[in-house]
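Need a sequence for this fold. Nothing fancy.
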């Protein structure tokens, strides 16, 4: 579609405005009338009309000669108006044969005479014709001057149609200065008059011209509005030729506006209109518009029939260049449809045509198309052959610019083959040539490819040099994020190479500077996090958490709730792992449980529960663990932790159910069996407790578990199985005579033997070495006989 002003009015600028005869009268008819004319005025007028008719059939020599004869007759008979008219028609003949200098001289003579005789109508008419010459010779200022005088005359004469027409010419003249605002004003004045006169054809023409002006002024919205209105009017007038032409123009305008669906609808309308006019078969570009728009809209199946139709047209014409081009389009359509076999056929036809035409450059390019499709079919060796052949041709014809690109292509194929050595080789060759060519952007791409391969090969030492090269290139661009990422990459490499943390931190600090310059708060927060991680991995937890806390504060200010939650979790977990449960809780409690998925909510509820557990806040722990169980129904850890909490709350039946659930999920978890045994012991189901404890001890393969021996010992005492209890006591004494477990066991044995004083002595010793579980002593059946003893009460008071 064209983007220049169409000068709709110009073809009629040089036509005669006489109303003696219709402009379409035949030359012979005029000649016949001329033979019968008697008056000089009639003869001169008919001769000028004949001049016009000769000009209509493009016989400008006869047109000029006939008007010259009319001038001679006028001069001979001193017919002043005849002289003025004859000069004008002579000017018309010269103007229509594009001899504008001569035309202007003749128009000037006509203008002078018409001014002398005060023929205002003809003065205005000649001025408009002179304006046309000025426009054609790009003397727009002179054209405007002539038109303004002509408009002023017509305004005095009240001739609205001529005024409207001349405003149109003035719009064209201003557009060529260029003065777009004045051009628009002139066309709008023309439009207003034509609308008043209800001349729809002219209204449509002016809307078309307005659209051109708006488009030249990059006002696509108003260009579309006016062209759309021109189309609507031509449609109402049933002017199919104009309608079809404007439809094609709208195809282009809507495409520029990125409204491809509407563009396609007008392409289809244009096709229908030209078909009705019987011209569609001679206009393959209509099919090309529809094909390309369907392709751009990813309607590949719809694009294919039009491409195939174009193929048939170009084959019939024997137009090899167009055949090659349309085969590219067909190949690309099949490629998008993932029909790689037909894609290859189309590209091969294209390749063969370029070979026949001897077009080595395009032939070499076609081999790359073929290579890409072979790559899609995973025929990588064939793809390598094709690219190598294209490379040889490019070297032969001296196309140096494309050679590094082909090295890139080869490297990419070798990447697909997992042949990193060859991939590195060709990317390196490409980089070397890009450096010679000074192609900074392409150097950058090649460097990034090399870095990626070196990372994959874990060749971190080599990576450093290329990352530094990448940094040098990025500093010459405005790619701040990529520059910072390079520093971060170097920090990661330093970590992989086990370089001192100072080096890792230095790289992160360089990245931080870039982010600070770019005022990128989110990335600054990410840097603080990474630096904190460096310290934490180096066991400098305090410094690490301090930096994580800075990252947290920035994320909070940015209201980045998901990342805030992640940091709260991580910082809280660090404190929890270091048994700093109060600090852990202060972070966990800030966690927003209203966002994230069910797993996130479940895990945080569990962490809150466990933290409260270690702080001895068992009811709070239980509440959170109950919530965790809702979200993590299939996680045995939740039930295990809740079971432990229920034990602390002495709700052993409920705890037993949770440990049963754990065993149902993980059949070989010894800790679940231990705690199940403990609950059974507390529920005084001693026989079952012994069985579960035996199972635990067999599974854990721990023969020094003092706690387990003590529980089983107490169960045996309660079951009156003294010998077995005595055996466990001996086992405890062998393991450690002075541990609280052994001392409590001795106390139990003394209590059931009736030696209360010895029992209390052993309990007191246990307290002295750290035993503090008063509940265990008060609720143990074997110590019930000590309840009334004053000394026993004193010992209990020393425990929690």
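Here you go.
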């Amino acid at each position: 579609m064209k983007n220049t002003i169409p000068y709709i009015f110009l073809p009629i600028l040089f036509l005669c405005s006489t109303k003696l005869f219709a402009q379409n009268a035949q030359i012979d008819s005029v000649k016949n009338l001329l033979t019968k004319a008697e008056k000089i005025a009639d003869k001169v007028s008919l001769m000028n009309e004949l001049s016009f008719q000769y000009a209509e059939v493009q016989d400008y020599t006869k047109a000029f000669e006939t008007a010259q004869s009319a001038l001679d007759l006028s001069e001979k008979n001193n017919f002043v108006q005849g002289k003025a008219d004859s000069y004008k028609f002579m000017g018309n003949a010269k103007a229509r044969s594009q001899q504008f200098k001569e035309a202007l001289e003749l128009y000037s003579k006509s203008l002078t005479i018409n001014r002398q005789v005060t023929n205002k109508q003809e003065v205005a008419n000649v001025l408009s014709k002179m304006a046309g010459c000025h426009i054609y010779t790009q003397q727009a200022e002179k054209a405007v001057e002539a038109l303004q005088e002509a408009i002023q005359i017509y305004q005095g004469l009240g001739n609205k149609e001529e005024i409207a027409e001349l405003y149109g010419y003035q719009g064209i003249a201003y557009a060529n200065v260029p003065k777009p605002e004045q051009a628009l004003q002139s066309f709008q004045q023309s439009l207003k008059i034509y609308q008043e006169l209800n001349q729809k054809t002219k209204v449509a023409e002016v809307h078309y011209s307005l659209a051109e002006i708006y488009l030249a002024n990059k006002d696509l919205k108003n260009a579309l509005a006016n062209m759309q209105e021109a189309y609507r009017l031509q449609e109402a007038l049933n002017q199919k030729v104009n309608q079809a032409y404007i439809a094609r123009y709208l195809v282009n305008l809507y495409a520029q506006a990125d409204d491809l669906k509407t563009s396609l609808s007008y392409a289809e309308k244009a096709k229908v209109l030209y078909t009705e006019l019987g011209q569609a078969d001679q206009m393959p570009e209509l099919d090309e518009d529809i094909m390309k728009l369907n392709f751009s809209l990813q309607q590949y199946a719809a694009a294919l029939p039009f491409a195939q139709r174009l193929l048939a047209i170009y084959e019939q014409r024997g137009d090899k260049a167009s055949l090659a081009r349309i085969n590219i389009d067909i190949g690309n359509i099949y490629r998008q449809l993932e029909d790689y076999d037909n894609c290859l056929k189309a590209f091969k036809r294209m390749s063969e045509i370029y070979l026949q035409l001897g077009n080595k450059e395009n032939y070499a390019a076609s081999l790359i198309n073929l290579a890409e499709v072979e790559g899609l079919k995973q025929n990588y060796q064939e793809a390598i052959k094709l690219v190598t052949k294209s490379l040889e041709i490019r070297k032969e014809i001296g196309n140096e610019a494309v050679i590094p690109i082909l090295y890139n292509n080869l490297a990419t194929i070798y990447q697909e083959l997992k042949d990193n050595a060859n991939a590195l080789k060709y990317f390196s060759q490409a980089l070397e040539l890009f450096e010679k060519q000074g192609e900074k952007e392409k150097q950058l791409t090649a460097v990034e490819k090399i870095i990626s391969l070196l990372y994959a090969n874990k060749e971190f030492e080599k990576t450093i040099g290329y990352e530094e090269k990448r940094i040098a290139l990025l500093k010459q661009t405005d790619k701040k994020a990529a520059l910072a990422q390079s520093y971060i990459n170097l920090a990661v490499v330093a970590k992989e190479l086990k370089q001192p943390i100072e080096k890792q931190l230095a790289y992160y600090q360089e990245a931080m500077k870039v982010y600070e310059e770019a005022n990128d708060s989110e990335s600054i927060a990410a840097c603080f996090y990474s630096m904190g991680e460096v310290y934490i991995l180096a066991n400098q937890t305090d410094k690490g958490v301090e930096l994580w806390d800075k990252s947290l504060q920035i994320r909070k200010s940015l209201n980045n709730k998901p990342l805030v939650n992640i940091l709260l979790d991580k910082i809280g977990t660090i404190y929890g792992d270091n048994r700093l449960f109060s600090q852990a809780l202060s972070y966990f409690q800030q966690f927003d449980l209203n966002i994230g998925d069910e797993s996130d909510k479940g895990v945080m509820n569990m962490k809150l529960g466990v933290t409260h557990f270690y702080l001895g806040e068992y009811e709070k722990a239980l509440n959170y663990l109950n919530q965790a169980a809702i979200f993590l129904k299939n996680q045995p850890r939740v039930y295990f932790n809740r079971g432990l909490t229920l034990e602390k709350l002495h709700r052993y039946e409920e705890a037993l159910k949770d440990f049963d659930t754990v065993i149902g999920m993980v059949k070989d978890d010894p800790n679940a069996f231990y705690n199940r045994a403990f609950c059974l012991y507390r529920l005084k189901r001693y026989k079952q407790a012994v069985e579960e404890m035996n199972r635990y001890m067999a599974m854990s393969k721990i023969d020094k578990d003092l706690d387990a021996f003590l529980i089983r010992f107490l169960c045996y005492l309660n079951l009156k199985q003294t010998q077995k209890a005595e055996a466990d006591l001996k086992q405890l004494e062998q393991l450690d005579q002075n541990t609280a477990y052994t001392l409590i066991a001795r106390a139990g044995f003394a209590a059931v033997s009736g030696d209360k004083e010895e029992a209390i002595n052993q309990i007191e010793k246990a307290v002295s070495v750290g035993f503090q579980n008063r509940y265990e002593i008060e609720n143990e059946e074997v110590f019930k006989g000590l309840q009334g003893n004053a000394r026993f009460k004193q010992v209990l008071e020393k425990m929690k």
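For context: The chain has a mean pLDDT of 92.
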